[in-house]
Amino acid sequence: MNQAVIVAMGRSAIGRAPRGTLQYTRPEELGAQVITGVLNKIPDFDVHEIEDVIVGCAFPEAQQGINLGRILALKAGLSEQVPGQTVNRFCSSGLQAIATASYHIMSGQVDCILAGGVESMSTVPMGGNFPAPDPGLTVTLPETYMSMGITAEIVAKRYGISRADMDQFAVMSHQRAAAAISKGLFAEDIIPVQAARPGLDEMGRPGITFQPYSVDEGVRTNTSLEALAKLKSPFQMGGSVTAGNSSQTSDGAAFVLMMSAEKAHNLGLKPLAVFRSFAVGGVAPDVMGLGPIVAIPKALKLAGITKEDLGLIELNEAFASQSLACVRELELNPELVNVNGGAIALGHPLGCTGAFLTTKLVSEIKRRNASPFGVVSMCIGGGMGAAGVYEIIA
Amino acid sequence: MSIYIKKAAVIGAGVMGSGIAAHIAGAGIPVLLLDIVLPQLSDDDQKKGLTLESPTFRKKLAETGKQKVCDPKARLTYSQETKARIETGNLSDDLEKLTSCDWIIEVVVEQLAVKEKLFNTIAPYIHDNAILSTNTSGISIAAISKSLPEELRGRFMGTHFFNPTRYMKLFEIIPGPETRPENIEAMKVFATRRLGKGVVEARDTPNFIANRIGAHGAISAMQLTEKYGYTVQYSDAILGTPVARPKTATFKTADLVGLDIGGHVAQNVIEHASDEAEIKAYQVPAFANRLIELGHLGDKSGSGYYKKVRTPEGTQRFYWDYRKEDYVPLETVKIPAVLAAMKARTPQQRVNAMVWGDDEANQFAWEAVKANLLYTAARAPEIAADFNAIDNGMKWGYNWELGPFEIWDAIGVAASVKRMEDEGDVVPVWVKERLASGKTNFYDAAAIKTPYLNLNASEVTVISENDDAMLKNIGDGVACLEFRTKGNTVTAGIAEMIMDSLKLVEAGDYKGLVLANEGKNFSAGANLAFIMEMISGGQWDALAAAIHSFQYTNLAMKRCCKPVVAAPHGMTLGGGAEMSLHTASQVAHAETYMGLVELGVGLVPGGGGCKELLVRMMEKSGPKTALNLTLATQAAMEAIAMAKVSSSGQNAAELGFLGARDRVCMSQDYLIEEAKRTVINLYDQGFTPNLKADIVVGGTTTKATLQIGLAGMAQGRFISAYDAFLAGKVVHVICGGDVNTGTTVSEEWILELEKEAFLSLCGEAKTQERIGYMLKTGKPLRN
Questions:
Q1: Residue B2: pLDDT band with limits 50, 70, 90
Q2: What is the predicted pLDDT for the residue at B206?
Q3: Under CATH, domain B461-771 is a member of which superfamily?
Q4: N or C, which terminus of chain B has less Cβ within 10 Å?
Q5: Catalytic (active-site) positions of A
Q6: Does pLDDT of A339 surpass 60?
Q7: Is the backbone of residue A53 left (phi > 0), alpha (psi -120 to 50) or beta?
């Protein structure tokens, strides 16, 4: 079996949705700029080498519809010979895209794939433009369509996660993210993009202006336990899951260029990381946040390592309640989880997240003189978990 | 010369000025609201980085006034659209903008010198045909007029609004010495028709009409309270509703108005009066001044004659014990004389019972009423052209149920005059002469003429009637169906009358039918007690028949071959709203509180309301895609499931109860006339009756989508499980049942589903609990 490696990667700064800097930037525009930025990192690479573009997107409709993968290949000006596909596994779509790309490469039938994720939640909201659940399931298994916030409340209750612990977790996420940004730790991964904004020209006529955007804007540097304690749950009357201890809705795009180790060697490209394994698993839809508890052990086993071998863990912070439940249940070392902050501070652009977390994991492990193994994991709406194991190459 | 006010300016953005601006803007007329530029920056301004030149800083006063009055929580505007019609500015940079205003109203501080200076400043910017007015409540119009350039005096007058401007109907017009009569007439018409006000022409005397008589009424009540040694709470229990004054009586009203304001009004009369007795009558008791000294100015300062304290155990209420000079808890006050009077059916009978009884409380009420009648009668010739103006002033400006002269009629003019004289009082000559000439009453019901159509006018004849409704001929080929049930509740008798009326109108020489009444509310809804009775008696077949009859009465109205026009106003709830929604056109008063509120009592609208609101939402929804069908259905569901009630006629349009065929009318007086005119217009323009229409429904996809939303609300405990169950019933009805998305169904099919849902709910214990609770307490139960 061939080895699948990452040779280049990058992401946009994550924008707040639906009222952040990227709110007017269409997902195709955002994705294409990031793809261009990633490929610019390896200027000698010939784009005709790319055999497929796989894009993860959680709500592939409207602006994100009509096969975003192919649209992006064309929009980024790769070549009309470069095909594209869109994959959807909700919040793990970005990681799924990388895993699918890796499988193809490992099988030996394909050598080079551009994979990643794009989500503009400003453009296509959570749930899509028109949620239309199956009439039968709404009666037999309504949890299928349960609001994510309610599932987080159920997890908090079932695992006895206190409001104070959740808020503390959230504050830590913001503090870590703020520290990482001030140290410039994300600078190398971030591809500056031009954000479209409404503006007036010199004659005062309405039109579109562009604004450079390159720093994650979700972090609240000054948040505190006191400030978070004042928030009320929007999901449940008297509940403990609040906007402050949940992930933010966001806009973002992230891509990795993957190829077989041999191809990388032949092209003279230095691999950044090796894709080791990927696993998904199912749980009850009403406790979807517990998905990583199933997925992480499975992925570790496939990679042939144990959790003690992990140097770093990127566990998507969909909600503080489910993150804490997963950390406690899997007995993960909190000091290795989301060391540069998570989705509560930086945002969770659904289909982009798996690819975004991959860039975070790979960059951070490189800085650390520790175990080269890391895992990216997340819970998934509908009751699933996904986990991908990487080995970083020093 | 007629005036047409395209744009108005209000100068002074205090509570009153902003309120006036919002009301005029609410009537659809753009308003320029100006105030001064503040002399210096506040700390807040500096923090925001403002400078003395920043436009934001320079129009801050006007902008603050606008924002306060437009805050939806203040409930002072009809809709959010009002905001867009108010332009703010200041008196230094924006004077040029006054040149485009056709009416300029001054609402600045009550000092002649300030007003003079202001008029001097703005005079050059007032165009040649513009009307200029002052909203002063105390300063002489003649004094202000004198300071104006001569060419402005003919267009200058007093226009006195009452606070809160939206709700107080009174609008006093006070001509100045040189005001041209045609300008007074034009302003009267404008204020009545466009602003919906009740206009009273007042003479240029201190405090004009309502404040003159109202302040006297309040102060004499205070003096008597002290004389009788009553507590403020005890006094208020007698001198409110029992004597046809507002429930807030004397002291609670003072708290609302502000004790200091009340004091200024009294002082203004004292300063201008030469009559010793009058000066005495306006002396407020020492305890009132004491409260002002202590800063207890009423509601605005959090305490006055009454005070509320919120504690964890609930709200505690206190009143000011003026002897102890301290707040003491409210007591339970039961006064036999009051209890007896309150049994009366009309305010006339009530006040009559109150003043003629033998108890001390009766004596107290008599003295208060007498003092005010004598004072009013003595001042009437000086302050108003006729006594009717005074009655209107007190009813529209002070919320009295009856004006002084109506009260006099109610208690018997001859008998009360005799009693007054027996008690040594001097009755004004004109009253005695009137009595001597054989006029035993001030009003002769048969001779009352209104400039607008009223249903009791002598030219209006009754075509037919039953116990619950009357069909009247209101002239020009238009019939009017008037409810006459208590609270105008919808009954079988009304439904029967509608069916008969439709037959008559369709067959006879009529252009159409108006559905209207002159009650406080258009209709409070269905007769709940009647429904409960049938449920308790297990009369399911009869109940089903009643629902069916109501549904098909409304449907017949909708499909009438001649125009049927409703004139909703005030509360138009449940069954009342269902009827109104089925008409060809609704002419709604600006103060219309419309809603399908059946879920509050555990039911769904059962008279075609679910169907009709769905149809209205669907009409606006565009191509019948699954998404559009779902959005329209959702809008109907939310209005019904959340029992949304409009906060105004304009808001009823925003909520979807009024549509393109309907409109809002500012004047309640002219409402029925407007509805009648609409019937005539529709008929004359060639009325196209509604055909049997089919509805494309959302079916199972929409149902599933909405059900998931409801499940989320219930899981989040934002609604009770029973609320979700009830809303689910609504969803089932308006999705057309279990059918494919996009299926075409008949109106009758939705009615069938509606009836089925209604009847099934009648059998639910929790619905029965809700109905029982509502009947007992008048409040909804959330079980």
A1: low
A2: 92
A3: 2-enoyl-CoA Hydratase; Chain A, domain 1 (3.90.226.10)
A4: N
A5: 91, 348, 379
A6: yes
A7: beta
The answer to whether the beta carbons of residues B63 and B85 sit under 8 Å apart is no
> Which residues in chain A have their CB less than 8 angstroms from residue B701's CB?
132, 135
Q: Where are the domains of chain B?
A: 8-201, 210-445, 461-771
Contact B715 A150 (CB under 8 A): yes
Lowest mean pLDDT among A79-88, A207-216, B272-281: B272-281
Q: Which CATH number fits domain A4-124+247-392: 3.40.47.10, 3.30.1440.10, 3.30.980.10, 3.60.21.10?
A: 3.40.47.10
8 A C-beta contact, residue B605 and residue B573: no
For domain B210-445, say whether CATH 1.10.1040.50 is its number. Answer: yes
- B132 within 8 A of B104, measured Cβ to Cβ: yes
Report pLDDT for B769.
96
pLDDT given for residue B219 in this prediction: 95
- Judge: A239–B712 Cβ closer than 8 Å, yes or no: no
According to DSSP, residue B298 is labeled B
pLDDT digits (tens, 9 = 90+) for B190-204: 999 999 999 999 999
| Interchain proximity B716–A145, CB inside 8 Å | no
Half-sphere exposure of B103 (CA within 13 A, CB side): 28
Instruction: Assign A153 to helix, strand or coil.
Output: helix
Q: Determine the Cα–Cα distance for residues B570 and A346; give it in Å rounded to an integer.
A: 51
* Alpha-carbon separation of residue A81 from A49, B563, B756 (angstroms): 10, 67, 62
What b/e readout covers B346-369, taking b as 16+ CB neighbours within 10 angstroms?
A: ebbebbbbbbbbeeebbebbbbbb
* Residue in A with minimal Cα distance to B628: A130
* Segment B656-680 mean pLDDT: 97
Angle formed at CA B205 by CA B262 and CA B260, multiple of 5 degrees: 10
- The tens digit of pLDDT for each residue in A240-271 reads 999 999 999 999 999 999 999 999 999 999 99
- Could you tell me the CATH superfamily of domain B8-201? NAD(P)-binding Rossmann-like Domain (3.40.50.720)
Angle separating helix axes B626-641 and B721-734, nearest 10 degrees: 130
Alpha-carbon torsion (B631, B637, B642, B646), positive or negative: positive
Strand order across the beta sheet in which B512-515 lies: B461-465, B469-473, B478-483, B512-515, B564-566, B585-589, B663-665
**Helices A353-367/A93-107 angle, 10° precision:** 70
Please judge whether A130 and B630 are an interchain contact, meaning their C-beta atoms are less than 8 angstroms apart: yes
In the structure, what pLDDT confidence band is assigned to residue A111 with cuts at 50, 70 and 90?
A: very high
**With an 8 Å Cβ cutoff, are B717 and A133 in contact?**
no
pLDDT bin (cut points 50, 70, 90) of residue B381 is: very high
Chain A residues inside the 8 Å CB shell of B705? 131-133
* Mean pLDDT rounded to a whole number for chain B: 95
List pLDDT tens digits, range B490-513.
Answer: 999 999 999 999 999 999 899 999
* Residue spans per domain, chain A: 4-124+247-392
Which of A61, A138, A287 has the highest number of chain B CBs within 10 A, making it the mutation to test binding with B? A138
Q: What is the ipTM of this complex?
A: 0.90
Angle between helix axes B492-507 and B540-558 (nearest 10 degrees) is: 30
pTM of the entire predicted model: 0.91
Chain B positions in Cβ-Cβ contact with residue A233 (cut-off 8 Å): 716
- Select the residue of A132, A133, A239 nearest B626 (Cβ to Cβ): A132
Residue B50 and residue A54: Cα distance in Å, rounded?
A: 52
Q: Which of B627, B708, B715 sits opposite A133 (nearest CB)?
A: B708
pLDDT in tens, B577-633: 999 999 999 999 999 999 999 999 999 999 999 999 999 999 999 999 999 999 999
Q: Which two tokens stand for residue A321?
A: 């309640």
Of the partner residues B705, B711, B717, the one whose CB lies closest to the CB of residue A132: B705
